[in-house]
Design brief:
The complex is a heterodimer of chains A (253) and B (305). Chain A has 253 residues and is an alpha/beta fold. Chain A has helices at 26-31, 73-79, 118-125, 166-172, 190-202; strands at residues 2-13, 18-24, 37-41, 52-60, 63-69, 86-93, 105-111, 130-137, 151-155, 162-163, 182-187, 206-210, 226-228, 236-238, 245-247. A 7-stranded mixed sheet of chain A has the order 10-9-8-7-11-12-15, sandwiched between helices. In chain A, strands 1-2-5-4-3-6 form a 6-stranded antiparallel barrel. The radius of gyration of chain A is 18 Å and the shape is globular. Chain B has a single domain (8-56, 74-196, 218-299), classed as TIM Barrel. Chain B has 8 helices and 14 strands. Classes of the chains: A alpha/beta (253), B alpha/beta (305). The interface between A and B is medium-sized, with 29 and 38 residues.
Chain lengths: 253, 305
């Protein structure tokens, strides 16, 4: 983990409010793993003050990609960065997905902007694993399928794909998947992760989830991002340092 | 190498320069050591320790505000025993004054923690946190009660010969009254200020953004308040002051020293740029050269009013 100033290569608007930013950052590109995140300072001024955490969306050669929606002042500034403007990156941070193992099929579950880490995951495993990707959102505008493979979609309001939540969508497709040799990788809202946890326990599916939280530092000193552990209730885990990816069985969501 | 003397004294505690890292923003040193050479710093202050481990508050613990942030961590810490066993060995490798911050919920607990920790030679001084705004248990609101602060100071003073620093709350009318009490009871210095009580609500859900409802406000938003508190103490009491509150660069350090601080602590900035405190040391040296100052400590309370 280190701090680098890296130039923006380009910013692609993939949806009305969703951007993918390509940043030339060879040092980070060399070592970052899928599921890890970067804590980015968007401006040298005091407003906004803190860094903002972003999942690494993809890595292509010496370039890294982040995906974000414009929510507040920080992401607005980031979205307006021009090519060659520098981005102050602290990273890579946290633990990524454990993509190794004997499983034959990766089941990717993404809710809304939870798609962010999966282009990189897909790139890493597509030569060696079967991939089923299920993407859900409240409405059509929330669906992000950028650089994903074998995608099926659902929306809560039925405006695109099947009218269902993404866990129901997975259930509908279970007959197509050999779940005895599958592993689930998921990222999305807590309600989705909770439903998925129940589902995975019921079907004895190994499942890793990427969690998120407000945080200040991203590397363990502010203690701002606790998550309850299932094995030790005397102590919180930290999303930034112990996560953001956890085995779903290890955390209370 | 210039021959500028950057060293400062906090009572009998000698620091190679005035840049310390504030409690709660440096953990127990290990994470920040990946970014910064701890041996260059004036000192580091541990995360608040209590006698037993504390789990801390449930999420959400942090929210950003204008030029600042609110935190309500709830003094999550490993406790004195684990600190001595697992954290001290790492800190021992460094030649940087280690100040142990203690937060307790009773006078007895403050005393007990200090008694245990004072035997550890790596610990060079104590900073007593009587002002955490985020913990309710224990009954006493030490930080808001001059008599309670005086009592804690005298009881802790009785069990350690190491420099004793009391970290004061800004959430009071006259902070100098507290500094007077600390001095009278044998405290060596005060840290000023801890965070200010604040809150932030979501306008759509009408709920507080952090679980604890109130949090401690830190960051550059509080700097003018902190400066005023340091100045107030400096004008009323002859006691070394460690200035804290929204320091973002070397100029802020100089400003705190001018209004009365002997040293400073860097807090929120560590979350944003953990390399910044070390870089400030060189900047301070350059400032001294350009301002014709041979000894940085001459700045302390050099205000012209």
């Amino acid at each position: 983990m280190f701090i680098v100033n890296s130039p923006v290569v380009e910013t692609i608007q993939v949806h009305e409010n969703i951007f993918i930013q390509k940043i030339y950052s060879p040092d980070i590109a060399k070592i970052v793993k899928p599921g890890q995140f970067l804590n980015i300072r968007v401006s040298e001024t005091n407003t906004p003050l803190l860094r903002r955490p972003f999942s690494v969306c993809d890595v292509e050669g010496e370039n890294i990609f982040i995906m974000f929606n414009v929510l507040g002042e920080g992401t607005k500034i980031l979205a307006h960065k021009q090519p060659k403007e520098l981005v102050d990156i602290l990273g890579p941070l946290g633990n990524g997905f454990n993509l190794d193992g004997n499983y034959k099929t990766a089941i990717i579950i993404a809710g809304g902007l939870g798609s962010a880490p999966f282009p990189f995951v897909t790139r890493k495993i597509k030569a060696s694993k079967n991939i089923f990707t299920f993407v859900g959102g409240r409405t059509k505008a929330d669906l992000i399928t950028y650089a994903l493979d074998n995608v099926q979609i659902s929306t809560d309001d039925g405006s695109a794909g099947i009218k269902a939540n993404v866990v129901q969508l997975l259930e509908m497709n279970l007959d197509k998947i050999d779940i005895s040799s599958s592993k689930v990788f998921a990222c999305g809202p807590n309600a989705m992760l909770r439903a998925l946890k129940t589902f995975c326990i019921k079907h004895k599916l190994d499942c890793e989830v990427s969690t998120e939280s407000a945080m200040a530092c991203g590397f363990g000193i502010c203690q701002g991002c606790p998550i309850e552990s299932t094995s030790n209730t005397d102590k919180y885990l930290l999303i930034c340092k112990d996560g953001p990816v956890f085995n779903v069985k290890d955390v209370v969501i | 190498m210039s021959n500028i003397d950057l060293s400062v004294n906090i009572g009998s505690l000698k620091l190679r320069n005035p840049i310390m890292l504030a409690s709660g923003t440096v953990g127990y040193g290990n994470e920040i050591a990946e970014f910064s050479n701890l041996n260059k710093l004036g000192g580091i202050v541990t995360k608040s320790l209590s006698l037993k481990p504390r789990k801390g508050n449930p999420p959400q613990r942090i929210v950003e505000t204008s030029a600042g942030m609110l935190n309500a961590i709830g003094l999550a810490n490993v406790g004195v025993e684990v600190f001595l066993k697992e954290k001290i060995p790492f800190l021992k490798q460094y030649d940087v004054p280690l100040i142990c911050n203690i937060a307790a919920s009773s006078v007895d607990e403050y005393v007990e923690c200090t008694k245990i920790l004072t035997t550890e030679e790596t610990i060079k001084a104590f900073e007593i946190n009587v002002s955490c705004p985020n913990v309710k248990d224990g009954g006493l609101q030490f930080g808001n009660d001059v008599k309670a602060v005086a009592n804690v100071t005298s009881k802790v003073r009785a069990v350690t010969n190491k420099p004793l620093i009391i970290k004061l709350s800004p959430n009071v009318s006259y902070i100098s009254d507290f500094a007077i009490a600390v001095k009278q009871e044998g405290g060596d210095a005060v840290s000023a200020i801890n965070t200010l009580v604040g809150t932030s609500f979501n306008i759509f859900t009408r709920k507080p953004k952090i679980y604890n409802i109130n949090g401690g406000l830190s960051g550059p938003a509080i700097k003018p308040i902190a400066l005023a508190k340091v100045l107030e103490i400096s004008r009323k009491v002859k006691i070394p002051i460690i200035g804290i509150g929204g320091i973002m660069n070397w100029k802020d350090v100089v400003e705190f020293m001018i209004v009365g601080a002997s040293a400073v602590q860097i807090g929120t900035l560590n979350f944003i740029d953990p390399t910044a405190p070390e870089k400030m040391i060189k900047d301070l040296e350059n400032y001294c050269v350009s301002a014709g100052i041979n000894k940085l400590s001459e700045l302390t309370a050099s205000y012209i009013i």
